[in-house]
Amino acid sequence: MSSEPELFPTTGEDGEVFRRRLTPEEADKLPYVQRLLLGHFGEPPKRELFDPLTQFIYCLLSSRTKTELTFAVVRNLKKRFGSWENLRDARIVEIQDAIGEITFPEQKALQIKASLEEITERVGTLTLDFLARYRTDKIRSWLAQFPGMGAQTTAAVVNFSTLRRKAISVDSHHLRVSQRLGLTPRADAATTEERLMRLVPETWTAEMLDDHHQLVKKLGQTICTFEKPRCRQCPLLKICPYGQREVAASEPTSPI
């Protein structure tokens, strides 16, 4: 079997869905948010780009687990097993022991082994490098067939890996910040990403989308938290309806 099978019906350049031209106000929404976040946090660190398969494994491990711990577990897996083929062929109990620090290790050990075996069966070898030949939407549809791969994680594979495609990985922080800013209504990650991508300037590269995600995520982790957000300290307060309401509600009422 060829290592690069024809898994998708079409190939071609990375295509984007047709969208109407943005008004000047709409076109500056995300760039303005980006400028404010850059002014507050500075440039985000440059990402260490994984190959698509390593990023896929990272995504399967990352749910409900802190980023730093997930990176450490991925590095330990590679060191312990030597190759992803050896990880694929390991016993479930060995994989579970190696990822025991993360959340839901029993479930994730099963997902990882089953997914790596299925990739090998479909492709003929254990790699996702061949995905670079296909359009972003086709890649994400293919990845979404695997358990544990949804809108957020397929976006992460295509944007954070060496594939470097345009996508926004909408995690819980990005979802919360976008809704509080009024950029998108309440919706799931897939719908939120679709609506945010309509606001992305055509000049933004995949790297710029990654930087934007990192800054929004940092805001959600440090200031725009789920509980007790620090709205007065937020660099986006002047454009955030939620934050302005929170600040107004916390103001002492004047006696009549």
Question: Overview of this structure, please?
Answer:
With 256 residues, the protein is mainly alpha-helical. The chain has 2 domains: 24-44 and 168-239, Endonuclease Iii, domain 2, CATH 1.10.1670; 52-160, Endonuclease III, domain 1, CATH 1.10.340.30. 55% of the residues lie in helices and 0% in strands. The protein contains 13 helices and no strands. It has helices spanning 24-27, 29-41, 52-62, 67-81, 84-89, 92-98, 105-123, 136-143, 151-160, 172-181, 189-199, 206-222, 241-250. Helix 3 packs across helix 4 (67-81). The longest helix is centred in the middle third of the chain and has 19 residues, at 105-123. The protein is globular and about 65 Å long. Residues 1-13 have low confidence and may be disordered.
Mean pLDDT level:
91
SS strand fraction: under 5%
Helix content: 55-70%
Q: In angstroms, what separates the terminal alpha carbons? A: 82 Å
Number of strands: 0
In the residues, how many domains can be counted? 2
Question: How many helices in DSSP terms?
Answer: 13
- What do we call the CATH homologous superfamily of the largest domain? Hypothetical protein, domain 2
Shape descriptor reads globular
CATH-assigned fold name of the largest domain: Endonuclease III, domain 1
Would you tell me the structural class of the helices and strands?
Answer: mainly alpha
Low-pLDDT runs: 1-13
CATH architecture grouping of the largest domain: Orthogonal Bundle
Reading off the top of the CATH hierarchy, the class of the largest domain is best stated as Mainly Alpha
Order of helices and strands: HHHHHHHHHHHHH
Largest β sheet strand count, sense and barrel closure: none
Cα Rg: 20 Å
